[in-house]
UniProtKB/TrEMBL annotation:
Transmembrane domains' residue ranges: 15-34, 78-98, 110-127, 133-151, 196-216, 228-246, 279-297, 309-330, 342-361, 373-393, 547-567
Organism whose genome encodes this protein: Ligilactobacillus faecis
Keywords attached to this entry: Membrane, Transmembrane, Transmembrane helix
Protein name: YfhO family protein
Amino acid sequence: MENKRLTVIKNGKKLLPLGGIFLGACLLLLPQLYTHQMLLGSDSIFHYNRFYDTYMQLKEGNFQYFISMYGFQSSGRIVNALYGPIIAYINGFLLLLGKTWFNYQVLSDLVVYLLAGSSLYYLLRRAKVRVDLSLFLALFYMTTYAIQYWVQNQAFSGWAAALLPLSLVPVVTFVTKKEVNVLELACCTALITQTHFLTSLFVIMAYIPAFLYAFWQSKTRGRLLKRLFQAIGLFLLLTANIWGSMLEIYQGDRLLPPFINKNMASTAIALTSYRLGNWLAPFGIIIFSVLLILGLLGGWKKLSPLSRLVSLEALTFLILSSRLLPWQWLSTHIPFVSLLQFPFRFFVPYTVLLLLALGTFANELALKKQKIVVGGALVITLLGMGQTAQILFKELAVWSEPTNFMYEKNTTFTQSDPEKIKQAFYSHDLSLGLEYVQKSTPDYLPVHTDTIDPRKVHGYRRYHAQVISKEALFNKAVKNNKLIITWQADANEQRQVPVFIYRNTKLVLNGRPLAKEQLTYTWIGAAMLKQQKVFNKLEVTYAENKLTLTTLWLTGLSWGICGLIGLKRKIRRRNF
């Protein structure tokens, strides 16, 4: 009986930090719950279309992994298959629970906060950082702009930032144990790859020095390499859906790339200046950065290999995020650099590695001053939460403005009354907000011209002209996993229809399948076909190849098996 009581108390203590993280998340949600206002940032409409599409698939049971049948003006374009498909379906489920866009926004913010706090707490505990300090640093991480980037702008990299600490756990394993945990490495890398591909590259950048250290120190290098290749093999199985989709789509289609930033220097961080609300908020991030440098300079000899390596990696990412590098020259002379879009994205891994380094510093440099260190972390965290709340109140206040109440670049409003637009995001009719506010983002549209570089096609303008401006002329519905477009016509002639055609898109016009030679296309892949007088019905489907279908099943099966193995290992550790 006494043993059971001790077990309950012990388990209760383990849950207390999670309770603290939940409380911190609720406190950060208070500004929006109090004002009952929305935040619609630069990426909101794009991602809300993605999630609305998966929401409707889940609601109506019409599943289509590749083309958008509900979101993006029901245009049959491919987005989710190339952009975090699993997280897109998770957000569709959250939308199903929320029932309105406002409720979804609060719910998704809560999930991101909880993921961010708990994943950083887990990373710190794996590095043997004391419980209370791990909790305060985890709460502080929730206030940083790495996470607020989702909350305030609905930028999807915020979801990746929430999971990034968990993905960096193998760094601790490499350095402290000098080994490769196959399941851990494969799952952590696959998780971030399934979420945000660019962030997965940052994770691999952090892995490489840690693995090289483990390899250098290991006495069984052959075994280490063997386990590394096993992890890579398992990783490929866990992400097979991504590679299968990319192979199918890019093998047969030329796609418009995401936004190319022609002024990358302006989106790098100016380390010599500070502005409220930018990437250097809350102000505690600057204090922590100074402490990192002072700790390195003053205590290098006392630091463990993990502290040294993590600190140097953090400083590397900080430099990469800043204007210390000639980003304009690099983006002009090295083509793949432009894929990064915004150099400040390097500040996300810097933030995580900074907090991990400070946690290990506290163990190694402040053994006699632990209470002072923990107290200081608590004060900085509380100030950070206060500053973040202030920023949120300021951003939320924009919603009350009669104009410019949301991000408007490349955005079309089909409703002239601002109040009706706002109320649409509180309506249970989720299609209404996306009908009133439409954004002409052209990412991943199929390019049908050999005479011009896809990067030079003005996709925003063409998408508006060929899809958004034509919406009222066509009726669209989804039945039996098919997108059905109907319209009236006055003559038998060529007609541009607002639907995009990829290599494996299949069309049936007025009961007759259309061969590719019967079609012509606009530069951005919208269909040009011969309509008949009076009434027309176009059925649109996507026929993925068998190999791609196999990769989808293989991914699900691999995650299921890994989950069972992890559960079995956890039960075994508890029993022994």
